[in-house]
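PROTOCOL LOG
Step 1. Enter all chains and additional molecules of the complex.
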Amino acid sequence: MIHIDQLYKTYDSPHGRFEALAGISLDVKKGEIFGIIGPSGAGKSTLVQCINLLERPDSGTIRIGDQTLTGLSESALRRERRRIGMIFQHFNLLSRRTVYENVALPLEIAGVARGDIRARVEALLALVGLEHLKDRFPSQISGGQKQRVGIARALANEPDVLLSDEATSALDPETTHTILALLRDINRKTGVTVVMITHQMEVVREICDRVAVLSHGHAVEVGRTLDVFSSPTHEVTRAMVSAATASDLTESTREAVRARMQAEGTAHPASSVRLLRLSLSGLSDTDSVLTSLAGEFGLGVHVVQARIEDIQGASVGTLFVTVRGAQDALDCATTALGQRKIDVQEVDRV
Amino acid sequence: MFEKMFSPQILNLLQQSLLETLYMVGVSGAIAVLIGIPLGVALVVTHRGALLECVWFNRALGLVVNATRSVPFVILMVAIIPFTRWVAQTSIGTTAAIVPLAVAAIPFMARIAENAMREVDRGLITAARAMGASPMQIITKVILPEAMPGLVAGTIVTLVSLIGYSAMAGAIGGGGLGDLGIRYGYQRFLPEVMLAVVVVLVLLVQAVQSFGDWLVRRMSHR
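Step 2. Run joint prediction.
Step 3. Record the structure below.
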């Protein structure tokens, strides 16, 4: 649906030239929810603003469906922009227009007849659940409600694509969840292709089918959310995933665990104690991991740190456990876990 | 109270002067709004990085506006007498006084309008562009409506300034309250007249200001 080919964009400033996009190429499939994530300065905002040519790239092409946007004149571009809806971090609602009037704005701009506007706006407000607020002003409604107005407005001209520029970054977690659910619902119902720019891993995890990771103007990793999360290849991705999924132990935790392991080792001189890190990915068979370790292999298991999430049906995450037992029991257990596609790493032993 | 202090003639003059002031200020104020606001729009949209960027035009217009504002009103009034004569067919009288008042008020209003419109959140303009709005649509549907409270407040400031300037119009036979105050109150040593003029001016400004505040409050309630 969206084809981005070799985009380059450099900004000149008094402090020198800054290359925001250094040859980015991406393809977004029709009807999918595609995430674009990366640290600050990676080029996310520049990229999304190039998609509807609010910013013109220095070189490269943008194609939406079968229409190439990069060569178009301003007036032709304006027409094409009606096929692309956009929602923003700070909502960008007109303060002197009511909710109804804000949603009607894109229709007025497109020259839709008065009578048709009414029907369309009311349908949109019903879609986002705000019919009861149609005569309120933005200052009288909450952040989540404002973003819903933004979403209704963005969908006014029945676009093929919806761009979300950090749309949930200014919302609290609960409201973020509601808005994401709404977006997913709209995507399933209308088939609109959604591109989500965000710096929040939780957002990508919750609704994105595929994700691209940006760093210093390059797309360093692209793939299904599940794969990128469970088996990140690029170090930037690994750092982001690790930060969001507690897949490392802090120094202080390590020392505390070590001390406890030594105490345990002294209390059971015949056994070894090991600190293991179990990584569960989309492929892992995670049924009763702990019960197996304790029951099947007779190990003394102690959970140190764990963060496991359901990503679109699969359990993904990292589990740190200390296991105590006879040497060969420990070896058997490690092999068995490996067979169940659970990656086992020994972090420490006593 | 006034009736006791003043003769019917003076009261009559007071009333006439008030009407002359209202006439001068009203017409020049209307001209300032009708020409000043579009000028303000021109200044805002041609700025670097703005909708219809055109830096040389912006600089040129800015220079003209600044220059006109730099000239003290008293001097401006006298300096443009030939122009006044050309427009109003005379260089004295209330109608003639409207010319320099308007010339002074237009750039004043333009700057105020420019500032009010600059305050409009850039994000709104980005959103409007993303919707496929043309520059004209952005100006009429986003910038002007969002800046309206500021524009109204600015118009009130301009009107109050014009009331002050109109007092100087007396110098070219413009009439009005200021003229009355100077000729009768000062030159003919009638301090009660001066006092009366001041009181009426204060009340007039207060009324204009209060009306303006009410109007802005009603609009910003949104």
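Step 4. Note key features.
Residues 103 and 205 of chain B are 21 Å apart (CA to CA).
The interface with chain A takes residues 121, 123-124, 126-134, 137, 141-142, 145-146, 148, 219, 222 of chain B (CB under 8 Å).
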